[in-house]
Design brief:
The complex is a heterodimer of chains A (270) and B (329). In chain A, helix 6 links the parallel strand 7 and strand 8. A 6-stranded mixed beta sheet of chain A has the order 6-7-8-3-9-10, sandwiched between helices. A 4-stranded antiparallel beta sheet of chain A has the order 2-1-4-5, with helices on one face. Chain A has a two-stranded antiparallel sheet with strand order 11-12. Chain A is 31% helix and 29% strand. Chain A folds into 2 domains: 225 residues, P-loop containing nucleotide triphosphate hydrolases (Rossmann fold, 3-Layer(aba) Sandwich), CATH 3.40.50; 44 residues, no CATH class. Chain A is of the alpha/beta class. The two termini of chain A are 38 Å apart. Chain B has one domain: Orthogonal Bundle (ABC transporter involved in vitamin B12 uptake, BtuC), CATH 1.10.3470.10. The two termini of chain B are 24 Å apart. In chain B, 50% of the residues are buried. The chains are: A alpha/beta (270), B mainly alpha (329).
Chain lengths: 270, 329
């Protein structure tokens, strides 16, 4: 679906990513994780064309992205950045309507089809009670849902999310992640996201891609890849990983920064 | 709820139109000679050319039309540039249009007074060149609003220095120039109206095609790009329309500040930030405000007529501060 080949990305002279390749299959949910400054957001921004790579190429359905008209890309791929801002007085419904723009010529007005798709996006993100409210009146989690609804109105096949849960409280974080998961399962939406929370990355992705200092450390199934040693190597943090056998989920507890921590937990399963 | 909100916006636009018509009537009435409404009607309906009819038809009306169009142009230019710069303090002057036009016009008026009839076209070109300079300096892998603003400040300073230098060197001839530099609608004829109208109508119509573009730019660069928009292209196109409107106005009446800054601001407070309502409302509000300002300018110190630019700055500045203090702006 999306393939990155030998990406080299730099801000001015400073090289952030040296040589990065990966391939995301259709319907997959992939998280890019790594410490601050590792270059994970840089990779996502390059895929969404906000940054231009120095070397290498990105392929969307086997087609080099730099040769595709950006409007065509916007019909297939939607990306939400960490900070999304909107005019203060815009309503939820009006904002979601902007998601239709990639599908419209500049002179085309709102059609019945647009209305239906907006309604569908509102259904999918459970925003019924909010559709006539102003975006500014909503809480952070509700607002994030509105942006996701807008992205859905683009009818994309791929959704790129840059730290979608930052700034949200724990309940809203889970709400947003559950929403993304359900979109992945129900619509077959391919999701690539940058996450900070290892637990969420483990819980909500089919595959994690671990980056450190601009290099790919390892990638694969979270339960296999995310080990105590790896996290120590990448984050310099001692963790204790438990497996919840009933739910087939991993729980990652941070114990402490490596130099100071003496304790290691022993129980592997509960 | 949204429906009713938008209905309110229509009502605001309707009422502002009525107020505009009222201001037009007031502007016909007031001046060095004051007319009652019945006298205006009599004069206009009389078949022979009385002096009253001449004053109303050939002095006041063209002036009123020029004021309304210039007001509309500047307000729309300001509103569009606010979307381009993503900054509520953007003003047409920032693009170098006014300072470029000023310098060009002053060079003609002071150094080559025999070619004074060329002032509109030279001012237009001066404005266009200055603005092109600002955008060229600001261009680096695309246009970033901050760089336009910085380049604009720098270019304005340089051109403003040139203007001051010439004014000092030729201070004996400065009288007529002062009116122009401060924006004056005095002595405009139907010929001016024809010229201004032709280009303004084109500019304003194209401006209405910028509505969706401006709305998308308001979502920020990353979101615009996500929506399949080439932000550089949009910025250039909208800037071009705005600068054209500002330059055509400046070339006819000289430099009028503040309209392009405060009108879109007030309009935003009243009808919100959707350009579908903001632009038409700015047209009406800009027309009304500049016409009111000009009517003031020619009545407040009768028989002396002040440049309308001075009135706009003196009244507009404090009003703008008031908006800032209210905290909503």
């Amino acid at each position: 679906m999306i393939e990155a080949k030998n990406l080299k990305i730099a801000y001015e002279e400073k090289i952030v990513i040296k040589d990065f390749s990966f391939n995301v299959r259709e319907g997959e949910m992939v998280s890019i994780i790594g410490p601050n400054g590792s270059g994970k957001s840089t990779i996502l921004k390059t895929i969404s064309r906000l940054l231009k790579q120095k070397n290498g190429a990105i392929f969307l359905e086997k087609e080099d992205i730099s040769h595709i008209n950006i409007k065509k890309i916007a019909q297939k791929m939607s990306s939400l950045s960490q900070h999304n801002r909107s005019p203060e007085d815009i309503s939820v419904k009006e904002l979601i309507y902007y998601g239709r723009m990639p599908h419209k010529k500049w002179y085309e007005l709102k059609t019945k089809e647009d209305e239906d798709i907006i309604q569908w996006a509102i259904d999918k993100t459970s925003l019924h009670g909010f559709k006539d409210k102003k975006v500014i009146e909503l809480s952070g989690g509700e607002r994030q849902r509105v942006w996701i609804a807008m992205a859905l109105a683009q009818r994309p096949k791929i959704l790129l999310l840059d730290e979608p849960t930052t700034y949200l409280d724990i309940c809203h974080q889970l709400e947003v992640m559950e929403l993304v998961k359900s979109l992945n399962e129900e619509l077959g939406l391919t999701v690539i996201m940058v996450l900070h929370d290892l637990g969420q990355a483990a819980k909500y992705s089919h595959r994690v891609v671990v980056i450190k200092d601009g290099d790919l450390v390892v990638e694969g199934n979270p339960s296999k890849v995310l080990t105590v040693d790896l996290i120590k190597e990448v984050y310099n943090v001692e963790v204790c990983i438990r497996k919840d056998i009933l739910k087939d989920e991993m729980i990652i507890h941070p114990v402490g920064v490596c130099k100071t921590c003496e304790t290691r937990c022993t129980d592997e399963a509960i | 709820m949204i429906k009713s909100l938008n209905k309110n916006k229509h009502i605001y636009i309707f009422f502002s139109l009525i107020i505009l018509m009222f201001v037009v009537l007031l502007a016909i009435r007031l001046g060095s000679v004051e007319y009652s409404f019945s006298k205006i009607l009599d004069a206009l309906l009389s078949t022979e050319m009385t002096s009253d009819k001449n004053i109303i038809l050939n002095i006041r009306l063209p002036r009123i039309v020029v004021a309304t169009i210039v007001g509309a142009n500047l307000a729309v230019a300001g509103a569009l540039l606010q979307a381009v710069m993503q900054n509520p303090l953007a003003d047409p002057g920032l693009t170098g249009v006014s300072s470029g036009a000023s310098l060009a016009a002053i060079i003609i008026m002071l150094l080559f007074p025999q070619y004074t009839y060329l002032v509109p076209i030279v001012a237009f070109l001066g404005g266009a060149v200055a603005c092109a300079l600002v955008y060229t300096l600001a261009w680096k892998n695309g246009i970033k609003p901050v760089r336009i603003i910085l380049a604009g400040v720098a270019v304005n300073a340089i051109l403003g220095g040139g203007t001051s230098l010439l004014s000092i060197l030729y201070s004996d001839r400065i009288q007529g120039v002062l009116m122009w530099v401060n924006g004056s609608i005095a002595g405009k004829t139907w010929e001016d109206v024809r010229l201004l109208c032709t280009y303004s109508v084109i500019g304003l119509i194209v401006a209405m095609f910028c509505i969706r573009k401006a709305n998308i730019l308001q979502l920020g660069d990353e979101m615009s790009s996500n929506l399949g928009v080439d932000t550089n292209k949009y910025r250039l196109f909208i800037s071009l329309v705005a600068v054209f409107l500002a330059a055509i106005s400046t070339s006819i009446v000289g430099v009028v500040g503040f309209v392009g800054l405060i009108v879109p601001h007030i309009a935003r407070l009243i009808v919100g930030s959707d350009y579908k309502y903001l632009l038409p409302f700015s047209v009406i509000l800009g027309s009304g405000l500049l016409l009111l300002g000009d009517t003031f300018a020619r009545t407040i110190a009768r028989p002396i007529e002040l440049p309308v630019g001075v009135i706009m700055a003196v009244v507009g500045g404090p009003f703008f501060l008031y908006l800032l203090r209210r905290g909503k702006a």
